[in-house]
Amino acid sequence: MDFVMAFVVGGLICLIGQILMDTTKLFPAHILVLFVTLGAVLSGLGLYQPLVDIGKAGATIPITGFGHNLVTGVIQDVDQYGLLGVFTGALRSAAGGITAAIVFGFLMALLFNPKSK
After folding, report:
1. CA separation for the pair 43, 68 (Å, rounded)
2. How many CB atoms within 10 Å of residue 116?
3. Tens-digit pLDDT profile for residues 12-64
4. Mind giving me the DSSP string for 3-26?
5. Contacts of 94 (CB under 8 A, 6+ apart)
6. What's phi and psi for 56, nearest 5 deg?
7. Nearest-CA neighbor of 61 among 7, 10, 3?
8. Taking burial as the number of CB atoms within 10 A of a residue's CB, which of 6, 47, 55, 101 is the most buried?
9. pLDDT tens sequence across 71-108
C-alpha cells in the first residue's frame, strides 16, 4: 500500500506542477521556486509532515520535499544549537543530496563532454 500512496501523492504534486505550467505564464524556474517555498512554508506550519507520513517517498522526492528537508533540518539544529542552527541546519540536512548532485553532475560532464552554446 505504501507504493500506491507514494504514487498518488507524488503524482498529485506533479499534476499540480503540470497544471501550473499549462495554464499560467510562469516559467519552470518560477514553479520550482514556488514548490520549494511551498514545501518549506507547509513544513514550518506543520502541515507537510502528515503528507510525508501518508505518501512517504511520494512526498519527499519531489522538489517540495527539498523545502521540507531544509526546514526540518533548521528546526532540529535550532533545538540543538540555538541561533547557530538557523545557519547550519539547512545545509546539514541537505548535504547528502547536494553532494550527490554535484558529484553526479561532474561525472556526467566528464562522460558526455558538454559544449557551451
Report:
1. 5
2. 3
3. 999 999 999 999 999 999 999 999 999 999 999 999 999 999 999 999 989 99
4. HHHHHHHHHHHHHHHHHHHHHS--
5. 66, 69, 70, 73
6. 45, -120
7. 10
8. 55
9. 999 999 999 999 999 999 999 999 998 999 999 999 99
d(CA 31, CA 9): 18
- pTM (2 d.p.): 0.82
Which of 89, 98, 109 minimizes the C-alpha distance to 40?
A: 89
62 burial via Cβ count (<10 Å: 0-12, 13-18, 19+): buried
Say how many Å lie between the first and final Cα of the chain, rounded.
46
Kindly report the number of other CB atoms within 10 A of residue 9's CB atom. 21
Are the C-beta atoms of 57 and 5 separated by less than 8 Å?
no
Q: Which residues are within 8 A (CB) of 90 and not within 5 positions of it... i.e. 6 or more apart?
A: 70, 71, 73, 74
